[in-house]
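Suppose you are handed a protein chain with no further information: no name, no annotation, nothing but its sequence. What can you learn? This example shows the usual starting point.
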Amino acid sequence: MPTKKTGPEYEQTQRLINIAIKAGQTQEKIAKLCRVDQSTVSRWKKGQSRARLGQVKPLLKQYGDRIERSPFQLYQRNIPEGCAPSTSMFLKVEGRLLLREAFETIPEVRDPPEAVRISVQEVTKGCFALVIERAIGRLPRSRDKYKVVNLRSRDMPWHLPEKGYALLLDQEQLLGTTITLHEFCKKNWSSEFAGLDRLGLLTTLALMNHGYIIDGLEALTVSVGEAEQT
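A reasonable first move is to predict its three-dimensional structure. Written in structure tokens, the prediction is:
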């Protein structure tokens, strides 16, 4: 029997659904808990509609405490040989993750292989954390026929090599940094890591998708008269 649509609309519906899914729930299980159709849960997840408070009470009992929790990422610094990991080697950065991209070295350029992962977090509105991690040496391999490094594997040995690889930047500095990353890292990384030269584009796109205005963009537009002729 469907749950009665009681109470006001729950504004955090989409976030609550995504939290539940990340915790291991499926849309089918959520639908059963909330006593709605799976198609309704799908619309909630996409932000196309909101649940009533009465509908999502079962989810709020399980995951409501996570709604108020600030999002964060935890990074690990390089572990010296012979040392065990400790909390002093971890860096916590609060703020929602806007971008995370990983790039592998071009095989002909470097041996042993190396990878770099770039993360951009919104610490506050207009203030961003740019975190640059590296992985060197024995990297996990995916099982496809090409034996390509699986950069999304949990076994990737990502680490912060130095304190300077975590930066707080404003929007202008962020875009300038990602476009000319080698100037900050003192290396011409864009020629060594496949696809890294697209990082400026990816960062700009991520900011636009999160509501930021990018000055100086050229836009291809069609006037009303031209549209009628076509």
